[in-house]
Design brief:
7 helices; alpha/beta; globular
C-alpha cells in the first residue's frame, strides 16, 4: 500500500506544496485507489497534480467524519470532475463510503455550519453512496471501520455544536478510520480520532483479528488534552510496541513530545509518500 499526503497542517520543507488545517490522503492498494477525506478547500487537487497523482480514476472516496476540515473539499472535487468531463476527459464515479450520520447538518452557535455543506441527496447525483455504521472491506487488506465503540474512560469525547434535530452536544458519532493489514501489522489511517485513538486501534484489532500495530497516520485530536487522557493514551500506546506513529493535523506539539517517550514519532507533511 502507498499513501500520499495531499493535505495536512504542514508541508515538507523545500517541496513547495500548499498546506491548511485539514487532512486528505490518496491511498493506492493494489489496483484500488482511495481518496480519504478532502481537506477544507481545493488544495488537495493542486497538490495531487504537483505530485503527479491522478484523482480522476478513484474507486472510493472515504470520509472520516462530517467536519469542514475533512469534507469542504467535496465541492471543488465535483467541479474538478465536471470540468474534466466537459473537455472529454474520462472520469470515474467513485463510491463514497462513510457513516450514516456524516451528512447530517452540524451547527455551532457562534460559528454556524461546520459540517458537510452538501446534502446526501445532492451528493447522490455525483457519486455512488455507501453509508454504513458497520465495517466495510474495500480490498482484501483495507477496511473502513464504521462506527467505533467508545470504551476507554480516559478518552474524553468532546462535544462540537449540535446536529440538526438534536438538543444535545454532538459527540461526532460518525468518526471512523481505515485499517490496513500489512505483513508487519496494522496500519491505521485516521482523520481526527474524535472516537479516541485508543478506541480506534482496539476496534481495528478486533475487526482485523490482528494484535500487532505497525503505524498510525493522521490526526489524534490531542489538543491540550486533559492529564488523564494524555497519560491514558501514553500508557496504552506503550503496550503496543508499535514501530512508529505519524501523528499530525489535530495533534499539538506537547502531545507529540509526550508520545515520543513511548513511540517513534515521525514527521508528516504535504508531499510525503509512505509505503507499507
Amino acid at each position: 500500500m502507498k499513501v500520499h499526503v495531499l493535505v495536512d497542517n504542514n508541508s515538507i520543507i523545500d517541496r513547495y506544496f500548499l498546506a491548511e488545517p485539514g487532512f486528505s490522503v490518496l491511498i493506492e492498494e493494489g489496483e484500488c485507489r482511495i481518496l480519504f477525506d478532502t481537506g477544507y478547500s481545493n488544495i488537495f487537487i493542486s497538490n495531487s497534480q504537483k505530485m503527479g497523482l491522478d484523482l480522476s480514476h478513484l474507486d472510493f472516496l472515504v470520509l472520516s467524519h462530517s467536519h469542514m476540515d475533512h469534507t469542504w473539499g467535496l465541492d471543488p472535487l465535483i467541479r474538478h470532475f465536471s470540468e474534466l468531463r466537459a473537455v472529454g476527459m474520462p472520469c470515474a464515479k467513485p463510491v463514497i463510503v462513510t457513516h450514516t450520520e456524516t451528512f447530517t447538518s452540524v451547527v455551532e452557535e457562534t460559528f454556524g455550519e461546520f459540517g458537510c455543506l452538501l446534502s446526501q441527496e445532492k451528493l447522490a447525483r455525483h457519486f455512488q453512496l455507501k453509508l454504513t455504521d458497520k465495517p466495510m472491506w474495500l480490498t482484501d487488506r483495507l477496511v473502513f471501520l464504521g462506527e467505533i465503540p467508545r470504551k476507554n474512560e480516559f478518552e474524553s469525547v468532546l462535544g462540537f455544536g449540535k446536529k440538526e434535530g438534536s438538543d444535545e452536544e454532538d459527540r461526532v458519532i460518525e468518526d471512523s478510520a481505515l485499517a490496513y493489514k500489512s505483513d508487519n501489522g496494522l496500519v491505521i489511517i485516521t482523520g481526527c480520532s474524535h472516537a479516541g485513538i485508543c478506541n480506534i486501534i482496539e476496534y481495528a484489532r478486533e475487526v482485523c483479528k490482528e494484535e500487532r500495530i505497525h503505524d498510525v497516520l493522521g490526526g489524534l485530536h490531542l489538543q491540550e488534552p486533559s492529564r488523564d487522557q494524555l497519560q491514558g493514551t501514553l500508557n496504552y500506546i506503550h503496550t503496543l510496541n508499535m514501530k512508529q506513529m505519524h501523528a499530525c493535523h489535530c495533534t499539538d506539539l506537547q502531545s507529540k513530545i509526550a508520545l515520543s517517550q513511548v513511540v517513534d514519532i515521525k514527521e508528516v507533511g504535504v508531499g510525503m509518500s509512505l509505503q507499507y
